[in-house]
Amino acid sequence: MFYLFNKSYTFKKIIQNKKKLSNIFAFSIFDIVISGIYLGLFLIIAYLVKMAMPARFNIAFELPFYIFLGITLNWFKGSFVALIFDITKTALTSNLFIWTPEYGLVPPVIAILAALFFKLVYQKDLWLLIPTVIFILAIIFIFFYYFSLNSQQISRVPVAWRSTFDKITILSLIGSISLFISIAAIILFILYYKTKEQKWKIAFLSLMILAILFIIFRWFWHPIAFIKYYNRYINRSGNDRLINNFFFYYLSPIILKSAFSLPIYTFCLVSTIPLINYLNYRHNYQSRLGY
User: Fold this and answer.
1) Domain residue spans in the chain?
2) Which residues contact 257 (CB under 8 A, 6 or more apart)?
3) Alpha carbon of 45 to those of 41, 48, 51, 52, 67: distances in Å?
4) 30 and 283 in contact (C-beta within 8 Å)?
5) For a tag on the chain, would you pick the N or C end, based on fewer CB atoms within 10 A?
6) pLDDT, tens digit, 9 for 90 and up, residues 137-167
7) Are 154 and 173 in contact (CB under 8 A)?
């Protein structure tokens, strides 16, 4: 009797482990369809941005796509598809041979971090404090760090932006972006607190994920990656640009563009991810059943 019970228990564990592994590594029909639709949209936007938008207005539209893939497909599938997105975009819009790890490894890392943060949706509400506190501390640090800089450091930007920036402008932009995200987050959290509907919790967490990863990869990492890229492929003077000297040179225009792009990304992610998760639950039978 004990042998039969133990054998039955072992069989159930095998089935459960198979289902977990299938959900992580195997692509369902729903996953493939969603990935294909967004790859098509991604490449269309990439082509239009390349052909119609001046380089100075580069808005890094890719980031919300990678976040979406991580949240929707989980960490492994999301990071794999995000890498495919990046390689395909590079082949379409530039030269695949100038692919660099500073840029190329960012998409899968964003997808992995987004997937890990999104697991907080299934935890107690108290866990929502983690991304909230991270965002608040990051914004406070950036604001006071810029506040401590002298005006000459902040005003040192590319020629195309030289008449735009001063210390007050940058601090105002950081404050405006922080205020927008805070108001949106408070509204979403109140809606969740009042209704206890999962879609509002998903929307709130999606906003926090976007804000945190935007700060990390757009505000902090992008200037560093571009300086390395510039020294490797563009610079012909023989004098490499140093990160210490050129970090804010590239960061200040990014903050200005963030004031316009971040609200658009917020609307797209907050409105899309709850819907896709609902459709995933309703129609992704292969993933739910584990075959």
Assistant:
1) 17-289
2) 57, 58, 59
3) 6, 5, 10, 10, 16
4) yes
5) N
6) 999 998 888 888 877 777 677 766 666 677 7
7) no
